[in-house]
């Protein structure tokens, strides 16, 4: 329970495994785009208060494991990443 976050009347420990896939799984995450994706993830952490626990980028997809306080933040993560791509 030491990892749990809390407010006045609630406690939570929300961790999500998120996979970003380009359309038709084209191999787009090479040097230039991989750097851009890493920059996008750093911006997300700073603006949305998301804790990145683990990440892995392949040539055709990206896996991230994040700790987020509430599920609406997960929706904003997907929306923000869609706009950036």
From TrEMBL:
It comes from the Bacteria. Gene3D superfamilies: Transposase IS200-like. One of its GO terms (molecular function) is DNA binding. GO terms for biological process: DNA transposition. Residues 11-71 form the Transposase IS200-like domain. SUPFAM superfamilies: Transposase IS200-like (SSF143422). This is Putative transposase. It comes from Candidatus Scalindua brodae. The lineage of its organism: Bacteria, Pseudomonadati, Planctomycetota, Candidatus Brocadiia, Candidatus Brocadiales. The gene is tnpA_2.
């Amino acid at each position: 329970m030491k990892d749990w976050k809390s407010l006045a009347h609630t406690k939570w420990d929300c961790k999500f495994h998120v996979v970003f896939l380009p359309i038709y799984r084209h191999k787009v995450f090479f040097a230039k785009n991989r750097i851009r994706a890493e920059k996008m993830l750093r911006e997300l952490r700073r603006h949305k208060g998301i804790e990145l626990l683990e990440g892995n980028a392949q040539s055709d997809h990206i896996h991230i494991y994040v700790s987020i306080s509430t599920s609406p933040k997960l929706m904003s993560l997907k929306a923000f990443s869609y706009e950036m791509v």
